[in-house]
Amino acid sequence: MAFSNTLIFWYLQNNRELPWRKTKNPYFVWLSEIMLQQTRVAQGLPYFLKFTEAFPTVFDLAKAEENTVLKLWQGLGYYSRARNLHFTAKHIASELNGEFPDNYKELLQLKGIGDYTASAIASICFNKPNAVVDGNVYRVLSRYFGIKTPINSSAGIKEFKALAQTLIDSKQPGTYNQAIMDFGALHCKPQNPLCHSCPLANSCVALEKKLIKELPIKEKKIKIKHRYFNFLVAVTDKNETIIEERKGKGIWQNLYQFPLLETSRNIDEKEVVASEEFENLFPFESTISLFNTKEIVHKLSHQHLHTRFWIVKTSEVKIKTYNWKIVKEQPVPVLISKFLDNYLSTE
């Protein structure tokens, strides 16, 4: 109890004022938790405000077009979160009359909701004693208790979840969960934690044994895959271009892009023009130039995209073309959004 009481006392003095903490409405809590996965609060907050303004209720989100949802999400990355969010909103609106389940087990059945989010909603909105375990919690527990089990191993996931469950304050589980997450984010930080002013310093194993920099432990990272993207940016005599929806289950599903020539290495202009993709798209006379003389390396969690944008000026193409204004209105990856800003500002 001393551990949880200390954290709650710290939280009541140091907690961040965030809009989703001013309510126990599960829609807002759910929205914030999904947005903050893999995303810092400072980056996620403007998106939360935009979403709640555009979709003040789960019914509003359910009625929206997927394109609209993806466009508002643009820049947050991990777009499967947005698609799952939309899918679940439609399910809650149509099948559950707009009511969120009030317990961990049923929340876990909803698409896009895992252990962490189900625990957060159950504890914060419905006062259920389900402990959250996120990156902040892993860090606090591994340091305080001196645990060397890798946090991304199956054994570690089970061990930390079981430990977290024994520590939760059953009388105020939502407050405790938010306390330990804020403590990890603001005090027991990954780099340069504030050990000199830590209320848990006297009993922290990592501080005593000088393990602060070593803990928590992660198993070796997945090998980074390198991919080479050549976007073919058509510019017709009518100053229109080609965009297409990205299909399949890979990155950027249902977002829009310019026609893509993916290769096993960087290629030059001659190789681009000689490719089958180029010949099919541009059967008429055309000129080609490289927009970004230095390749752009777009880093995702497990892959790096070495990217070049090729401007192809042509009299006409055999497929449908679009006005640049329409292109700007479509949901696109950040990589392409930045290109559009740069390219259109030079025109």
TrEMBL record:
| Listed EC numbers | 3.2.2.31
InterPro entries found in the cross-reference section: A/G_AdeGlyc_MutY, DNA_glycosylase, Endonuclease3_FeS-loop_motif, Endouclease-III_FeS-bd_BS, HhH-GPD_domain, HhH_base_excis_C, HhH_motif, MIG/MutY
According to the record, cofactor stoichiometry and binding are noted as: Binds 1 [4Fe-4S] cluster.
What biological-process terms (Gene Ontology) are attached? base-excision repair; mismatch repair
The cofactor required is: [4Fe-4S] cluster
Instruction: Give the UniProt keywords, A-Z.
Output: 4Fe-4S, DNA damage, DNA repair, Glycosidase, Hydrolase, Iron, Iron-sulfur, Metal-binding
**Record-level Gene Ontology MF annotations:** 4 iron, 4 sulfur cluster binding; 8-oxo-7,8-dihydroguanine DNA N-glycosylase activity; adenine/guanine mispair binding; metal ion binding; oxidized purine DNA binding; purine-specific mismatch base pair DNA N-glycosylase activity
Q: Which SUPFAM superfamilies match?
A: DNA-glycosylase, Nudix
| NCBIfam families in the cross-refs | mutY (TIGR01084)
Return the similarity comment.
Belongs to the Nth/MutY family.
Its job: Adenine glycosylase active on G-A mispairs. MutY also corrects error-prone DNA synthesis past GO lesions which are due to the oxidatively damaged form of guanine: 7,8-dihydro-8-oxoguanine (8-oxo-dGTP).
Name of protein: Adenine DNA glycosylase
Organism of origin: Tenacibaculum todarodis
Traced from the root, the source organism's taxonomic lineage reads:
Bacteria, Pseudomonadati, Bacteroidota, Flavobacteriia, Flavobacteriales
